[in-house]
Specification:
385 residues, alpha/beta, Rossmann fold, 2 domains, nine-stranded mixed beta sheet, six-stranded parallel beta sheet, 15 strands, 34% helix, globular
Length: 385
């Protein structure tokens, strides 16, 4: 494939680069192979003096940028200071040679005065439904949709909800690094902390926040004390003291993306124990295809983008309450590694990869680039195949 962007990329993110390796990291590491990527995080309020922008090159061509602002700055002051930081950033760079890529509409507050070559909104989640969502986020999203050249959504249900909001919008459900998670299909040596847990292991990896069904996990642990529930990931936006506690519930904390296959390798069943609320109404959990790529049976709450297509195709079992969730786990444990199920999983995942998603996004971006600048040659910055 010939890449035809010829622009650097500035990504506005509400997620920190080193938090959890997910959609933004998968896409931006690939963009960094064809252009320079500047990943702008939300500010840190720890600066004793003048505001500054810290830049760290995470890999060739990929720079994580963190604004450091004075402690105690108001929202309005922070917006003005980040805008000034961006003005300094573009003092030695031509803004018209940049693509602006948004994960959060809130960044429009300090970036709306700039005129990039292209504006892309990768609407990964319905952020307005999340806990502590800013009051202005829906208003700013509307402004972002009006100025965006191209919009992507993180799943089918989110696309259905927003498809009438933009003329050039495309669904891109979160994908997988099949080789990375496929390693879990081999009997890998479990990390010591998990190896010390004896018995049937039910696992979850991801952010533990307001989407996490604490009561469901509490009831599963209580009713089946012979099952060991392994929970991997950071706890955010909820009080850790409120989380269910039991001898068979194990909070492992965050683990690196590189180590995840070795943890998954030791699980008997993978879980997606999510509540059905505003924060999960439009989500398309990345962990669904990752669990499947690892060859693990999956039991999930009735999240719409999991029910369709995964549940409808028989690739994932759906638990609609505590009783059916436990029954689904029991059924998956009884099936063990069903060759026919695994064959169906691999057939479904055959065209699912971050490389495929990235290439499809770039083709759409290149089409816009060529319309805006018909004299652009097809050679682009670099070639990728």
């Amino acid at each position: 494939m010939t890449i035809n962007l010829q622009k650097d990329l500035l990504c506005f993110s509400h997620l920190r680069w080193d938090f959890v390796f997910q959609r933004p990291q998968h896409l931006m590491t690939r963009f960094a192979q064809i252009t320079n990527v500047y990943f702008l995080e939300e500010p840190v309020f720890d600066c004793p003096g003048e505001p500054c922008l810290q830049q760290e090159e995470k890999q060739p061509g990929l720079f994580v940028c963190v604004p450091h602002l004075p402690a105690g700055s108001s929202d309005e002051e922070a917006t003005d200071m980040i805008r000034t930081i961006l003005e300094s950033f573009f003092a030695t760079r031509d803004c018209s040679n940049f693509i602006f890529w948004y994960y959060t509409p809130m960044a429009l507050q300090f970036s709306s005065t700039f005129a990039p070559a292209m504006t892309v909104y990768d609407c990964m989640d319905e952020l307005s439904g999340f806990k502590f969502a800013p009051a202005r986020i829906k208003h700013l999203e509307q402004q972002l949709l009006e100025r965006a050249d191209l919009v992507f959504t993180g799943g089918a249900s989110l696309y259905e909800a927003k498809k009438s909001s933009h003329h050039n919008i495309h669904p891109f459900p979160s994908s997988i690094d099949k080789m990375h998670f496929g390693a879990a299909r081999k009997l890998l040596a479990e990390p010591e902390d998990q190896a010390a847990i004896a018995g049937i292991k039910l696992g979850f990896c991801g952010v533990i926040d307001e989407r996490f069904d604490q009561e469901l996990v509490r009831k599963i642990a209580l009713r089946r004390p012979d099952w060991q529930i392994v929970l991997i990931g950071p706890v955010v936006k909820i009080d850790p003291a409120d989380l269910p506690q039991a001898a068979n519930i194990h909070y492992m904390g965050p683990r690196s993306y590189q180590l995840l296959p070795s943890y998954l390798s030791g699980w008997d069943v993978a879980l997606i124990p999510f509540l059905l609320n505003d924060s999960t109404r439009f989500i398309s959990p990345t962990k669904t295809p990752e669990y499947l790529a690892a060859g693990k049976p999956v039991v999930s709450s009735a999240i719409r983008d999991v029910v369709s297509p995964y549940g409808e195709m028989g690739l994932v079992s759906i638990g609609r309450n505590t009783e059916t969730f436990i029954a689904s786990i029991e059924s998956e444990l009884a099936k063990s590694a069903d060759p026919a199920w695994l064959l169906a999983v691999d057939e479904f995942l055959s065209d699912k990869s971050w490389e495929h998603t990235f290439s499809a996004m770039v083709r759409l971006m290149s089409a816009i680039r060529e319309k805006k600048d018909p004299v652009v040659l097809a050679s682009g910055l670099k070639n990728a195949s």
